[in-house]
Amino acid sequence: MTAQELQNLKNKYDIIGNDPALNRALEIAVAVAPTDLTVLICGESGVGKENIPKIIHQYSRRRTGKYFAINCGAIPEGTIDSELFGHEKGSFTGANEMRKGYFEEADGGTLFLDEIGELPLASQAKLLRVLQSGEFIRVGSSKVLKTDVRVVAATNVNLMFAVSRGKFREDLYYRLNAVPVFMPALRERQDDIYLLFRKFTSDFSEKYGMNRVSLTPDAVALLKSYRWPGNIRQLKNVAETVSALESGRLTPVSGKCEINAAVLSGYIPKDAPNMLPVKSSFSEDSVTPGEKEAIIRMIYQLRQEVDYLKEVVAGRQTPVSHVRALPQETGPDSMDRNVGPFIHGTSREETSEWQEPVEIKTGHSMQEPRAVAQFRDTEFAKAAPEDQDGGDLSLQKAGTGLIRKALEKYHGNRKQAAAELGISERTLYRKLKSIEEN
Q1: How much is the pTM?
Q2: How far apart, in whole angstroms, are the C-alpha atoms of residue 122 and residue 104?
Q3: Percentage of the chain modeled with pLDDT above 70
Q4: Are 230 and 43 in contact (CB under 8 A)?
């Protein structure tokens, strides 16, 4: 595109800015428009991604067809299939009549799916089928229908990370990402920030008949130095707020409404140095309550096994002849009941998800992990006292002897040795590393 054609395009869609990354995104949109390739628009919330599908539709052979923009994140999960693919009468409660979905309504046109990363996995499979073959089925029907729709998708999250977390289908990602378009964040377009501010204040003053606000050089520098996490949407809000509240402030000499940095700073949110952009729903480092519970259980179980092994090797633990499984507590409050002893320092034992709790009957009630019971009953555990020198051998030396005996028996096979000892292979590796260091 020539510079004039590009500027005409910006004027038509009210796009402000001269940033090279922005120009490149617009050029790609125009170039890919005549084809039917699927386009994936990536960028933070508020950068203006909604302009790209409009340009693609208007410059395509489908310009006379229908254009629909659907926000996948705004539709409840239970009704998303009905909205996209339609439903038959009586297919669910409230379905009083047959309804066409967006894919059927937009036949021959363009469909813009915003926040595609929020689409449920079940709906992702149906979307993949439409993209590959143009076929879909209404909710409550068994009849396969055909449609011819150009799909443009947008996301403000990292879809590749969502794929790695199992939140987004990998095959759908590659099907959508035929032509990627990246919209730059406002903080990456520093030279465009003041242009946008002037545009918003000018529109506001014309609409409400107020004085137009301008900025002093120090205020412009402050405007550019802010990181604008809300991007263009946030900048527009600040510009309109400043115009509404400061338009009556006129400089006596120039007669203009000029705002300096001291005044403008009152309208820009305070930004901590270590503050980062808000993470998406597919937050990469989030840990679910279930995962936290499992981690705590494993840590507590490991501590109990170590304590029990110390008593077995030292000869202070009473042998047991019978163990029985206790039921595992479940339910929303199970974490507090099961992990409570670890947090509050009580003596009640806890088990991990891959072991059943047991009760030792020796005249007093306690629990013993299954792996520890297996370890105690092996020939190595029975041989432990023989390795002691008159009962004075240290716990560390006794444990070392048992590990060496197990490795000798299985000719250095750590996996079999760990199974014989009733400990994990990782625990065995850690103990071997400790032996080598000492």
Answers
A1: 0.61
A2: 19
A3: 74
A4: no
